[in-house]
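Model the whole thing, not chain by chain.
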Amino acid sequence: MSEVTMEKIVSLAKRRGFVYPGSEIYGGFSGFWDYGPLGIALKRNIENLWWRMFVENRDDMFGIDAAIFMQKQAWEASGHVKGFSDPMVECKKCKKRFRADQVGDACPECGGNFGEVRQFNMMFKMHVGATEDESAVSYLRPETAGGIFVNFKNIIDSFHPKLPFGIAQIGKAFRNEIAPRDFIFRVREMEQMEIEYFVRPDEWERWFVAWREEIFMFFEAIGVARDFIHESEIGDGDRAHYSKRTIDFEYDFPFGRKELCGLAYRTDFDLSAHAKASGVDLSVVVNDVTGEKVIPHVIEPSFGVDRAILALLASVYTEDTLGDETRVYLKFNPIVAPIKAAVFPLLKNKPELVAKAREVYTELKKTVPQIMWDDNGNIGKRYRRQDEIGTPVCITIDFQTLEDDTVTIRNRDTGVQERVSTSLLSKHVLA
Ligand code: GAP
């Protein structure tokens, strides 16, 4: 078995329509990537599974989709205007800038000396509306969490939940990273899936432990190898400004063990700060008899979609020998596979086979929309192509189909084929 490298993953992702470099015809744009047809299908499948698992399958969770822009006071209150920064150094000679914690003593470009370490705020600063003065300043959100905290009161007022309960959101977040790198690992425009789980202050440890396990369960569900995920306790001084305890879940990426997602105990930092800055009471009643109120504390599991996709691609990328041919295939769990099945007529130039194959394809698409028609090249080439994009099964319509309405289903991982009736197809595909 040969090594899984970033070169192999990036090349397959581009060649087969998963992820393209941003603004590619203009030479690319550092930190920005575009998802192609298979990439967006994969991304949606992952997000849908997350939403089903953490929102729809529970009755203590509320999903929202907040605006990306918020009043700048919200980012001042949350501490991001002051503290959401990375240490940066500038080379005195070539003026290039680097993250201070990622370079040595000399400039890697020209060997020059660095100036003083400065803090660089990673929020993209924008002007909203036609005026460009300070009053019009806002920021592209650097985490989706912000929109959750400012909607806390809305959820309480509309649904009256009791603690503990959570608010979940999936959406874009933006960070002006000093050094975007490693494909979709560190980008400037990303997608996050976040939960703020509100608890009684004295119960935070219990819920922190519970969410640790939920995180592993999610990665197992999408098919990221558990053996490759490691917990790392973040020490005092290294945690984000709002956190009293953080565990980074790290993955063994081809370029090293790096953060995949995080779990933080944000205390009542955010709700208290927003209550103070907005003047709105964000406490909740925890005892109906005494009327005792508290500002809830919060446990935050925070997932980066792009990193989940990268970890998944690295997990499922497989090279093996099938028959006497070597091949590359993506061993996707069918639930996340962008294409669940491919349908082929055995021969492209036999109208009766093509017509029957179209009929089977159209019927199957009604129950399994993520399927693909393929009649290009010979059957061996079609199998290789589908293997490379991780399609779990290929369905071939041949002359026997015309007689008894059975088709062959070929399994991606084993290459083994079986004959099944067309009436049972959707069950086989979804299995
Ligand atoms: N709300 C908490 C929060 O945003 P974070 O550790 O800064 O915490 C959470 O980010 C997750 O978002 C990370 O674990 C990672 O998966 C993803 N993420 C953060 N910055 C990223 C970047 N520049 N590119 C890709 N993903 C990123």
